[in-house]
Design goal:
There is one protein chain. By secondary structure, this protein is α/β, with parallel strands linked by helices. About 35% of the residues lie in helices and about 20% in strands. The strands form seven sheets. Strands 1, 2, 3, 5, 13, 14 and 15 form a seven-stranded mixed beta sheet that branches. Helix 11 runs antiparallel to helix 12 and helix 12 packs across helix 14. The chain is globular and about 65 Å long. The termini are far apart.
Length: about 475
């Protein structure tokens, strides 16, 4: 697969893949026949600071329009479009389809008390894992809705529709309220074990949080379209009648973009860090470390997520006054970079911890320890994510913005002891959405489309000896700091 910034005609039908992330919206126009990116655009989002993390959904729509306009005439020629979006966010709309309030984003952990109460009320972690496939974290949408009802009851009362971020954009394109099984599986109120292609909502659970199922979108089955682009969308360079895919969550879209087969581990280094793999079996981890997500095709996507990844490490670099690559080996310092609370391990009230300083500790060693702490949290969940029949020596597919950094790559190699493959393609969420859109036109499995495009080709790094001493320091510090991190 080739990627180019040029805006020229492709050889096959053109499709648009969208990545609406925490920080920005990216749009790619892709030749469905070859996977060549013929045009691209990007526009930023604003995220609030303070106690919560919120964004105005209207700006996502504006960013989508701007990103598509940057794609020029290629976007106008596209025959299908699909949106991959940040998971878990709570979008509340009034009767006119307007946002009632800013969306609560995945990394807004104010709902930790509601999460604790909900887990207890439903019978504990084991009951949640068996029923929903996941033990909800404060990131999950169900906890955010419970928070809203308790803290902003007037906003909850005015809500006529509840959506996820990608649902919001898809609905504005089509005029129809839809979602997909992948993104729905991150809400905490969707069940997928009944064998139907799209699963179902758990109405008893919805009753516990006083959410009317009529406010939720229709779950579109894999391989089906959400609708077509409606007319009258001024300023949006997509022709009316363009096929619109169901879309999906960002991790599910990236799995499509890699053309993942079961058992291949993926480690994504972005604002959040994630470890996941496709599985044919529905996961149910009662510890809550692994979320039992569905994928966008009909399989499952067991996934562990950390809140603190590249942004947290970059913050340490800034505090130390060093470039993010200016790491140094050695030393005894341990950093647990839980600056925004943490999800894996489940420590929503935690803050960052620096331990083990000596007179000879250098700033570069502290920075390397921050990398170690972020990667350790992800690797500790890897064995739980992978099926028993997965190859333990298979390369880790390393993706996300951090995968471009030498310090991130070398830390993953040193702490995992496994080979690492860094795909050349850097916009896998948008590429996965494009593959989904292409599959609607060709009738192919979208993962097979991505494999045909060769999206997983890239830098291959051999395994190195695992740094057992660093792993033991991290494990010992995490155990000993429990009371501090939990308070």
């Amino acid at each position: 697969m080739t990627a180019t910034g040029g805006q020229r005609s492709g050889d096959g039908p053109l499709v648009v893949g969208v990545d609406s992330s925490t920080q920005s919206t990216k749009a790619l126009v892709v030749d469905a026949a070859t996977g060549e990116v013929v045009a691209r655009g990007q526009a930023p989002h604003r995220v609030s600071g303070g106690a919560g993390r919120e964004s105005d959904p209207g700006q996502w729509w504006e960013a989508l329009g701007e990103a598509l306009r940057q794609c020029g005439a290629a976007a106008e020629r596209a025959e299908a479009v699909s949106v991959g979006g940040q998971q878990h966010g709570l979008v509340t709309l009034d009767a006119g389809g307007r946002p009632v309030r800013p969306a609560m984003l995945w990394n807004d952990v104010r709902s930790a008390p509601q999460r604790d109460r909900l887990v207890e009320e439903l019978g504990g972690p084991e009951a949640w894992a068996e029923r929903i496939g996941s033990v909800p974290a404060p990131a999950f949408t169900v906890t955010k809705w419970a928070w809203l009802r308790e803290n902003e009851p007037e906003a909850a009362a005015r809500t006529a529709a509840v959506r996820l971020p990608h649902d919001y954009l898809t609905e504005r394109l089509t005029g129809r309220g839809t979602t997909d099984r992948g993104d729905a599986s991150g809400t905490g109120w969707w069940r997928g074990e009944d064998g139907s292609p799209s699963g179902r909502y758990d109405e008893d659970l919805l009753g516990r949080v006083a959410l009317d199922p009529a406010l939720l979108p229709e779950v579109v089955a894999p391989g089906s379209a959400a609708g077509t682009v409606r007319g009258g969308l001024d300023g949006l360079p997509l022709k009316p009648g363009t096929v619109v895919g169901a879309g999906t969550g960002d991790n599910m879209a990236a799995a499509l973009g890699l053309g993942l087969r079961p058992g291949r581990p993926v480690l994504s280094l972005g604002t959040s860090g994630t470890v996941y793999a496709v599985s044919a079996r529905r996961p149910a981890d009662p510890t809550g470390t692994v979320a039992g997500f569905a994928d966008a095709r009909g399989d499952w996507l067991p996934l562990a997520c950390t809140l603190n990844c590249t942004l947290a490490v970059d913050r340490f670099a800034a505090l130390l006054g060093r470039d993010r690559e200016a790491v140094e080996p050695g030393g005894s310092a341990v950093v647990l970079p839980f600056l925004d609370g943490e999800r894996t391990p489940n420590l929503p009230y935690a803050s960052g911890l620096l331990y083990g300083l000596r007179h000879d500790t250098t700033p570069g060693q502290i920075l390397q320890a921050a990398y170690d702490g972020a990667v350790y949290a992800l690797l500790s969940a890897l064995d739980l994510v992978l099926d028993a029949d997965a190859d333990p020596a298979a390369p880790i597919l390393l993706i996300g913005g951090g995968a471009r950094g030498t310090a991130w790559r070398e830390t993953v190699r040193r702490l995992s002891g496994r080979p690492v493959l860094v795909p050349e393609a850097s916009e896998l969420v948008a590429l996965g959405a494009a593959a989904q859109a292409a599959g609607l036109l060709t009738g192919e499995d979208p993962a097979a489309v991505a494999r045909r495009w060769g999206t997983d080709r890239g830098l291959s790094l051999d395994a190195v000896e695992r740094d057992e001493a660093a792993l033991e320091r991290l494990a010992r510090t995490l155990r000993g700091a429990g009371p501090l991190l939990e308070s």
